[in-house]
Amino acid sequence: MKTIYLNGTIRTMVRAQTVEALAVENGRIVETGRARDLLRAYPMARQIDLCGHTLLPGFIDGHSHITALAQTLLLCDLKGAQTFSEIQSRLRAFQSKRQLRAGEWVLAFGYDQTVLAEGIHPTAVLLDAALPENPALVTHASGHMGVLNTEALHRLGITASTPTPEGGVIGRNPDGTPNGYLEEAAFTRLTASIPRPDAGQAAQSMLDAERVYLENGITTIQDGLTRAAEWALLSAVQDRLTADVVAYVDITDSAHLVERAPAGSHLRIGGYKLFLDGSPQGRTAWMTAPYADNPDYCGYPVHSDNAVEQYMRKAVRENRQILVHCNGDAAADQMIAAYRKARESSPNDVRPVMVHAQLVRPDQLAEMARLNMIASFFAAHVYHWGDVHLQNFGPERAAGISPVHTALSLGVHCNFHQDSPVLPPDMLETLRCAVRRRTKAGVLLGPQERITPLEALRCMTADAAYAYFEEKEKGTLEPGKRADMIILNRDPADCPEEALDTLEVLETIKDGRTVYTKQNPKPTR
């Protein structure tokens, strides 16, 4: 049976086109056009009155980690904590609420030293005071670093003699003993053996995480760093997934997973993932010029040029897409050079994605356009960490954070992401950040990089589909494409900037079926 949507704004995302009505059948868009024509052609169709609201293609997640978001739903939430004392209080309350006995792990996520009154990372001693009898790990909001307490250091065998993994940092006291802080490779490798939740908890948490994306209008979700454990979790719930989930496997240690063919219709492996540097707010992004307050420090790389070239050649040779984490411009240089060399020996266009691209330069973006490389921007950085970027990089470089306007003007295909669980998967907040470019302190950061709401929507729909090689299936509302759609309370492209905060997702539709409806929408103004 056909369904016709009408009586609202239907923005197809084919350029600036809007239509009066849209018909769906069997999960596909059948026709778009004038309402009277569709009603005459399909007189028995079910009619959905949009009541003046706006129908759009479903949002497509440019980059996130659904398995990691699922895990954080089981952890102590430290987001927004403003003092060491508040971190301690939340940890104690979590331990008490979960009735965790002495010796059981306490895991937390989301602290950010840039918003803490103390302005520094916590230490093992601080965590010991809150949890003297439990091993504990608190993970930074970026996911690039974290802190262990003394019991956890003992459990993991981290001592004064533990070697620092290449591309990482082990924080140490003056006597050489570890102080609990771990950064980049040291954090990911040395904490890998911490116990995970049981299978039942993990599966339910995955479905809860998917629900968070659907509530935000996202119909295609990414798992942006998949290893064996993450793949096992995704595989366990694949037949219960509602959204499409695309996984990118760690090319450094899980490349064999690309041969796994899932049976579920909503799960697939999109290609490989590779890290080249760290976090700009965490001061581990790899730069060509020093950080503003330290003339001798430029951050650092994760891999040698030769290693990156080999990974890139592997991806291109196998004709598999590769997503590459690059925040600093030195990391961007390394990725671009490696892909250029890989393309010299193979004609395969794998549309490699530069994930984050926070400090990518205009000359690099021009080369990316020539090579058909995609920029996936974490545009909400401007609001959440723009003030920190001003301190770390100075006003000129900070103004170029997430240079979406420059990228679009040079012909680069762009998409947006929130890197969840770093931030919630709220695409509408990202739209606001890309349009306004205001920091938390109210600084207008790089006004030349502001874009229009319609341009932002394209980065979240049509261009995002292109980044997944799915432009023939998703991203626009055209006949033959999947009916992945959302209903908003108003049209973002026709919304005054001061009213962008009123935007909200009222309904999410996947393959023609409503999978989320907001129960108490705000009054439309």
Summed up, what is this model?
By secondary structure, the protein is α/β, with parallel strands linked by helices. 31% of the residues lie in helices and 23% in strands. It folds into 3 domains: 3-58 and 481-517, Roll (Urease, subunit C, domain 1), CATH 2.30.40.10; 75-190, Roll (Diaminopimelate Epimerase, Chain A, domain 1); 271-467, Metal-dependent hydrolases (TIM Barrel), CATH 3.20.20.140.
Walk me through this protein's architecture:
This protein is of the alpha/beta class. The chain has three domains: 3-58 and 481-517, Roll (Urease, subunit C, domain 1); 75-190, Diaminopimelate Epimerase, Chain A, domain 1, CATH 3.10.310; 271-467, TIM Barrel (Alpha-Beta Barrel). It has helices at 35-41, 66-72, 84-97, 124-130, 150-155, 185-190, 199-215, 228-237, 305-317, 329-344, 362-371, 381-398, 404-409, 427-436, 453-460, 462-467, and strands spanning 3-11, 18-25, 28-33, 46-49, 54-57, 59-60, 76-77, 106-111, 136-140, 145-148, 168-172, 178-184, 218-226, 244-250, 267-275, 321-326, 353-356, 374-377, 414-416, 485-488, 505-510, 513-517. Strands 1, 2, 3, 4, 5, 20, 21 and 22 form an eight-stranded mixed β-sheet that branches. An eight-stranded parallel β-sheet has the order 6-13-14-15-16-17-18-19. Helix 9 packs across helix 10, helix 10 (329-344) packs parallel to helix 11 and helix 14 (427-436) crosses helix 15 (453-460). The protein is globular, with a radius of gyration of 23 Å. The chain starts with a strand and ends in an 8-residue tail after the last strand. The model has no long low-confidence stretch (mean pLDDT 96).
